[in-house]
Amino acid sequence: MLELLIGLAEAILMVPVVMAIILGLIYGLGEVFNVISKFGHRNEQPAKERR
């Protein structure tokens, strides 16, 4: 019975940890692709006109 409770507690603790890791990876990949996109489109932006 004690082993079942330990396993349940471990699962309850691991779910938010794994979700945080997955969300962090998604955010990190988004930032990486943002940097790549800015680097690729850096020279394509038209110059702003001053009036």
Automatic annotation (TrEMBL):
| Description of how the protein assembles with itself and partners | Part of the AcrA-AcrB-AcrZ-TolC efflux pump, interacts directly with AcrB.
Presence of keyword Transmembrane helix: yes
Question: What subcellular compartments does it reside in?
Answer: Cell membrane
Family membership = Belongs to the AcrZ family.
Keyword Transmembrane in the entry? The reply is: yes
Keywords, A to Z, come to:
Antibiotic resistance, Cell membrane, Membrane, Transmembrane, Transmembrane helix, Transport
UniProt name for this protein? Multidrug efflux pump accessory protein AcrZ
One Pfam annotation reads AcrZ
Give the residue spans that cross the bilayer.
Answer: 6-29
InterPro entries according to UniProt: AcrZ, MEP_Accessory_AcrZ
As for membrane topology, the entry says: Single-pass membrane protein
- What does this chain do? AcrA-AcrB-AcrZ-TolC is a drug efflux protein complex with a broad substrate specificity. This protein binds to AcrB and is required for efflux of some but not all substrates, suggesting it may influence the specificity of drug export.
